[in-house]
Design brief:
The complex is a heterodimer.
Chain A: E1 3-6, E2 9-12, E3 16-17, H1 24-28, E4 33-36, H2 37-42, H3 44-47, E5 54-57, E6 75-80, H4 87-98, E7 104-109, H5 116-122, E8 126-127, H6 135-139
Parallel strand pairs in A: 3-4, 4-5, 5-6, 6-7, 7-8
Antiparallel strand pairs in A: 1-2, 1-8
Chain B: H1 6-27, H2 33-41, E1 45-47, E2 52-56, E3 62-64, H3 65-78, E4 82-85, E5 91-93, H4 101-109, E6 127-128, H5 143-153, E7 168-171, E8 185-191, E9 197-203, E10 215-222, H6 226-240, H7 251-258, H8 260-274, H9 283-290, H10 305-314, H11 316-325, E11 326-328, E12 334-339, E13 350-352, H12 353-366, E14 370-373, E15 379-385, H13 389-399, E16 413-414, H14 429-438, H15 442-448, E17 453-456, E18 470-477, E19 480-487, E20 499-500, E21 505-506, H16 510-524, H17 531-538, H18 540-549
Parallel strand pairs in B: 6-7, 7-8, 16-17, 17-18
Antiparallel strand pairs in B: 1-2, 2-5, 3-14, 4-5, 4-13, 8-9, 9-10, 11-12, 12-15, 14-15, 18-19, 19-20, 19-21
Classes of the chains: A alpha/beta, B alpha+beta.
Chain lengths: ~160, ~550
């Protein structure tokens, strides 16, 4: 089983990511599937009874389209087509801070060590590091910066409400 | 100026360690060129034609003498003993070795400096008026607000991978010396009828390939909501700004595509969710930051008009310098002095290590140990006693800072251009020099009067050519360097973008072209008109006819 980072540890992944062109029957034949958003939207009623279930959004897909369905998912995976793409940094914050989603928020795609610090602050708690890179090495980045100025998901007060005089 | 506490210091020290490790991983082959690129860029490190180029952050242009001495030391130890002041009031090194950069950052951190977010697709250095805190026309001191924005934007996790770079400017004066109308976000501090402080918010201004003046999306944003509103703007941009085409990725393209009205609605919708949340600013924090920007220990003095007028009579050179390089101060008996970095024969904005040391000494002696970089690429000593102007002038002459040309034709804004920059289509520094050589008579440039001449070596417009009264843009024509000239740009209040004069010129023709443009102005001006006024009255046609007619 491939290794992923979950809650600051490297573990074996239990989930299977289904590709963008996956069909309903692929889901039924897979244990712990993460399904593409469009498939969910087309087959909501058939998919709703499946537990556990995950869904993934591509970079251009917006979290608002899933806002009413969040309770059906144990994992919401957000895809990064390139490590320079920061759109889902906002999606993760919205999921956590606006929609109070408490399941796993997973980064997939072009996920490399040096994005993780930012992702963690935005509310991600699982990372599938690109397969040619080492997740144990990537783990180090989560603790590289020890102080942050802003409020975000990991720290809901900005530094100016935390500074001791 | 703002002094770091343990938290601020920890952030820059962690950053040094982090970047040291990123550099190590790059040399070890653990990071590819492409993967290292955004990491080094967000640390101000370009890999350029000759060598890497390192851009050091100078938040809103403000430096202490201690920091300036460190910059001098760094140029000596790691570079070729000179540095360049950029149009974002940062300091750039043109020749550092990649492997030395972590050590340079460590030296910078020891004086509360860094290179964080001076490049790359993130929120860049916030800029403001070089006369902040001392200007006579100031309504609100913008510096505390710039510092609040600096802290909010430093490693903001959500906005670390934006579609494109993002620049914010703040103005608190009647005049706009911060060019807020051509920034991604321009903030103007204002008071409402009830006397409360807030900000007028402009978005989507900018230069580059698609120059455009910003649109107002909020006439009065009460100050406690400044950061939540900025966060809402950035969130809309981060999510919906274009990422498919680098040339259409700035926020101005999104604002234009949606229309400023619709963009404002989107921001408002977002803002309603986060308004009044924990990032609402507190009076305590504003006070904490503001106490770093209180007045220095000014003496009770009187203006020295008579004594200075007498010196003017005896020393015409001093009179000339005073008329261009000395600016009125809010305190009686004080003045702000601009050190010209535009001496002919020296690349605009360049300073040597010795000059930096000299500036630090002068700041200690004459200006409460502080100096400021300006976006016109000069340096200001903001708090000089008028009775010491004469002695300061003599010292500035020795160090090559007394060229009396501030705001005149030879005070050229100029990017590093093709001599240094990978992006450039053409050289820019030799063009500036050729123009300065042509206009070598001080009497003549004084007679020409106020004139902004800006040069960019490519479309990215680092030299702000669109907002020059005369703008020059380097273009590539089938592999040869040519220069397109535009007229009528202005970066102040009611900013305007220059109009292109016509077909581009060869490098050697540029001084003649500028001479002809100036001739037209001299012939048509009324006694009180500056170049820009005459241009606005008579239009581009007369200029065009003169320049192109004589080419035949």
């Amino acid at each position: 089983m491939p290794l992923i980072i979950k809650n600051d540890q490297v573990i074996e992944d239990q989930w299977t990511l289904l590709s963008a062109d996956a069909q309903l029957e692929d889901v039924l034949q897979t244990q712990q599937a993460i399904v593409p958003l469009t498939l969910w939207q087309q087959h909501k009623n058939q998919l709703k009874p499946i537990k556990p279930l995950g869904v993934w959004l591509d970079a251009h897909e917006v979290i608002e389209d899933l806002a009413d369905d969040l309770t059906f998912f144990d994992v919401i995976a957000l895809n990064f087509p390139a490590f320079t793409d920061g759109r889902h940094f906002s999606s993760a914050r919205l999921l956590r801070e606006r929609y109070a989603y408490t399941g796993e928020v997973r980064a997939i795609g072009d996920v490399l060590r040096d994005q993780l610090y930012f992702m963690q602050r935005c509310g991600f708690d699982a990372y599938v590091i690109r397969s040619d890179r080492c997740p144990h090495d990537a783990l180090k980045s989560l603790t590289e910066l020890s102080v942050s100025y802003q409020a975000a998901y990991d720290q809901n007060l900005p530094l100016y409400r935390r500074r001791s005089a | 100026m703002y002094i770091y506490d343990n938290y601020d210091q920890q952030i820059v020290e962690d950053r040094v360690k982090q970047f040291r490790d990123q550099t190590r991983r790059y040399f070890a082959g653990e990071l590819s060129e492409d993967e290292f690129l955004p990491l080094r860029l967000q640390n101000g490190l370009y890999v350029q034609r000759q060598a890497p180029m390192l851009r050091i952050a100078v938040p809103y242009g403000l430096m202490s003498s201690k920091q300036i001495r460190m910059l001098a030391h760094i140029t000596r130890k790691y570079d070729k003993s000179y540095a360049h002041i950029t149009t974002r009031t940062n300091v750039q090194l043109n020749w550092p070795a990649l492997e030395d950069v972590p050590d340079i950052l460590a030296d910078l951190a020891s004086v509360q400096m860094h290179a964080i977010q001076t490049s790359g697709n993130c929120i860049r250095n916030t800029t403001t008026d070089q006369f902040a805190g001392v200007a006579r026309d100031e309504l609100v001191d913008p510096r505390p607000w710039c510092e609040l924005i600096r802290q909010w934007s430093t490693f903001h996790p959500e906005f670390a991978r934006l579609p494109r770079k993002f620049k914010i400017a703040v103005n608190g004066c009647t005049n706009d010396r911060a060019a807020t109308e051509v920034h991604d976000i321009g903030l103007e501090a204002v008071h409402n009828d009830a006397g409360e402080l807030g900000f007028r918010v402009l978005v989507g201004g900018g230069l580059g390939r698609t120059p455009i003046v910003g649109s107002c999306i909020n006439e009065f944003l009460p100050w406690p909501h400044l950061l939540s509103y900025l966060e809402a703007i950035l969130r809309v941009y981060n999510r919906f700004g274009r990422r498919d085409n680098k040339f259409k990725a700035r926020i101005k393209i999104l604002v234009k595509a949606l229309s400023p009205e619709v963009f404002a609605e989107r921001v408002n919708e977002e803002w309603l969710h986060i308004k009044d949340g924990p990032i609402t600013l507190t009076q305590e924090e504003v006070d904490r930051i503001s106490q770093h920007f209180t007045d220095p220990d000014y003496l009770i003095l009187e203006d020295q008009d008579e004594a200075l007028a007498k010196l003017d009579e005896q020393h015409p050179g001093f009179a000339r310098w005073r008329s261009r390089n000395v600016t009125a101060h809010k305190k009686p008996g004080y003045a702000a002095v601009t050190l010209s970095l535009k001496k002919t024969g020296i690349a605009p904005g360049d300073v040597t290590d010795k000059q930096l040391d000299a500036i630090a000494d002068l700041a200690d002696t004459y200006s409460f140990s502080e100096a400021r970089n300006t976006h016109e690429q000069n340096i200001v000593l903001a708090d000089v006693e008028q009775s010491k102007l004469f002695e300061l002038w003599q010292q500035l002459r020795e160090h090559g800072f007394a060229t009396p040309n501030i705001g005149l034709l030879t005070d050229i804004i100029c990017c590093p251009g093709g001599d240094f920059c990978n992006l450039a289509n053409a050289k820019s520094i030799p063009i500036a020099e050729a123009i300065q050589n042509r206009f070598d008579s001080l009497d003549y440039i004084f007679d020409i009067g106020d004139l902004d001449l800006n040069i960019s070596g490519c479309m990215n417009a680092c030299g702000h050519h669109h907002v020059g009264n005369i703008g020059i843009l380097g273009v590539d024509k089938k592999g040869a360097e040519f220069y397109q000239v535009s007229l009528g740009g202005n970066s102040g209040r009611a900013a305007t973008l220059g109009k292109i004069l016509g077909p581009a010129f060869a490098q050697d023709d540029i001084p003649d072209v500028i001479s002809k443009l100036i001739d037209v102005y001299i012939e048509h001006r009324t006694p009180e008109e500056h170049f820009i006024d005459t241009f606005q009255r008579i239009g581009i046609k007369t200029f065009k006819e003169r320049v192109y007619a004589s080419n035949n």
